[in-house]
Every structure is written in structure tokens, then in C-alpha cells.
């Protein structure tokens, strides 16, 4: 592990009872961990107790969640497809932070039925553009996902998806490094100014 590894938050978007998302997330987390250049923070929304109602004031659970987003240099969103979109749990989790997403890269691992979650990913690209993030061109997707993993949670045919994860994480690492450097340079420049110039 490098001295200052890239801090990557893996966001598990499904909170559905009986979900398949944890299987996909576990496989992906193993792939990311094997690289050795990333410090991972798995943010599983099912564990967070985020409110359904958008709060006027952030409570402790929301504050703690926003801090974790703020600490990350990059994100991987693990999303299913529900009715050609992404789950409501994920939208609330995206909308609660704001500046904490800014100028950071986002990658996607998707899964679903015939859509493989790709329609959810296309919608998420629009949403993340509004938050001034950059989304990775390459994603990993699993069509008819439940048939692609064995009972131990391992893909029946790991070569393709493992290679896809590597390609995507290489892109994410490039952008995370570039944008971390750019953010640091920007902070140094702003320290030299007498008046705040970022709204
Ligand atoms: C409410 C709902 C809507 C769904 N809609 C779609 C869909 O539009 N396209 C698709 O490919 N799969 C669809 N599916 C199948 C899911 O993508 C699949 O069940 C997946 O495992 C759901 O993720 P989860 O188990 O982690 O919640 C839907 C599933 C649910 C529960």
C-alpha cells in the first residue's frame, strides 16, 4: 500500500430485503482490495439508517455519512436496476452531501435482469454531472446477475468481469490521482488570496 493511498468509497445502493447487491459488492470489493493501491471504505446504505424524509438539519447518521463521502477521493457505486432506473435509497444518499462529491471521479458496477443495470447507470451519469463529478467511461455490468454467481458468491466465469473491474479501476485511479492533485493545487492557490472566490 502506498504512503498516501487513494481513498475509494464503495457505495452499495440496494437496501432491498433479500437483495442480491451484497454478493456483487463483495466480489467487487475483493477485486479492488487485491490491487493494493486503494484504501477502501465500503458504505453499505442498508447499515446507515439514513432518513427517508430529507432533513432540515443533518442528524448524527447523516453527518457521519456526509463526512465519509467528504473523506473519499473517488467512488464506486454498486447499483441494481429498478423499473429502468436506480433505487430510491441511492438517490437520497446522493442528494444528502453536495460539495463533498465535487471534483471527484465516480465509477459504476451494475446488475439486473436483461438490462444489466445499464439504464440505471446512464441515469446516474446525469445526476453525478450536476454534482460536478466525472464519471468513468467503462463500467462493469451483470445481466441476469443471479445466474452468474455460485452459492459462495464467486462468478462462474471470473475472467471477463475481473478484467472489466481492473480496466474500470485503472481509469478511476488515474482520475482520482489527477483530481486530488488539482484540488490540492487549488486549495494552495486559494490560501494565497485575500478574498474568498469560490461560492
Ligand atoms: C422493483 C424492482 C424493479 C425491477 N426492475 C428491473 C428493470 O427494470 N430491469 C431489470 O433488468 N431488472 C429489474 N429488476 C430486477 C433487479 O435488477 C434484480 O432483482 C436485482 O437483483 C435487484 O437488486 P437487489 O437484489 O440488490 O435489490 C427489478 C427488481 C425490482 C425489485
Describe the structure.
With 199 residues, the chain is of the alpha/beta class. It contains five helices and six strands, in the order βαβαβαβαββα. It has helices at residues 21-35, 60-71, 88-95, 118-130, 158-191, and strands spanning 6-12, 38-44, 74-80, 105-112, 134-135, 140-143. Strands 1, 2, 3, 4, 5 and 6 form a six-stranded parallel sheet that branches. It is globular and about 55 Å long. It starts with 5 loop residues before the first strand and ends in an 8-residue tail after the last helix. The model has no long low-confidence stretch (mean pLDDT 95). The structure holds flavin mononucleotide (FMN). Flavin mononucleotide binds next to loops.
Distance between the termini: 36 Å
Percentage of residues assigned to helices: 40-55%
Taking the sheet with the most strands, its summary is: 6 strands, parallel
Average pLDDT rating: 95
Overview features:
single chain, 199 residues, alpha/beta, six-stranded parallel beta sheet, 6 strands, globular, binds flavin mononucleotide
How would you summarize what this structure contains?
41% of the residues lie in helices and 18% in strands. The chain is α/β, with parallel strands linked by helices and 199 residues long. The model has no long low-confidence stretch (mean pLDDT 95).
Amino acid at each position: 500500500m502506498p504512503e498516501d493511498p487513494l481513498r475509494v468509497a464503495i457505495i452499495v445502493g440496494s437496501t432491498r430485503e433479500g437483495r442480491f447487491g451484497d454478493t456483487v459488492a463483495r466480489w467487487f470489493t475483493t477485486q479492488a482490495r487485491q490491487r493494493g493501491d486503494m484504501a477502501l471504505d465500503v458504505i453499505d446504505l442498508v447499515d446507515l439508517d439514513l432518513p427517508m424524509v430529507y432533513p432540515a438539519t443533518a442528524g448524527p447518521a447523516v453527518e457521519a455519512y456526509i463526512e465519509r463521502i467528504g473523506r473519499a477521493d473517488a467512488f464506486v457505486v454498486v447499483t441494481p436496476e429498478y423499473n429502468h432506473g436506480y433505487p430510491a435509497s441511492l438517490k437520497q444518499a446522493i442528494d444528502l452531501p453536495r460539495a463533498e462529491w465535487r471534483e471527484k471521479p465516480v465509477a459504476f458496477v451494475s446488475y439486473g435482469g436483461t438490462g444489466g443495470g445499464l439504464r440505471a447507470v446512464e441515469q446516474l451519469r446525469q445526476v453525478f454531472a450536476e454534482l460536478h463529478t466525472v464519471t468513468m467511461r467503462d463500467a462493469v455490468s451483470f445481466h441476469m446477475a443471479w445466474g452468474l454467481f455460485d452459492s459462495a458468491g464467486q462468478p462462474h466465469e471470473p475472467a471477463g468481469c475481473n478484467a472489466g473491474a481492473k480496466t474500470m479501476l485503472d481509469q478511476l485511479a488515474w482520475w482520482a490521482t489527477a483530481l486530488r492533485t488539482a484540488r490540492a493545487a487549488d486549495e494552495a492557490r486559494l490560501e494565497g488570496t485575500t478574498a474568498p472566490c469560490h461560492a
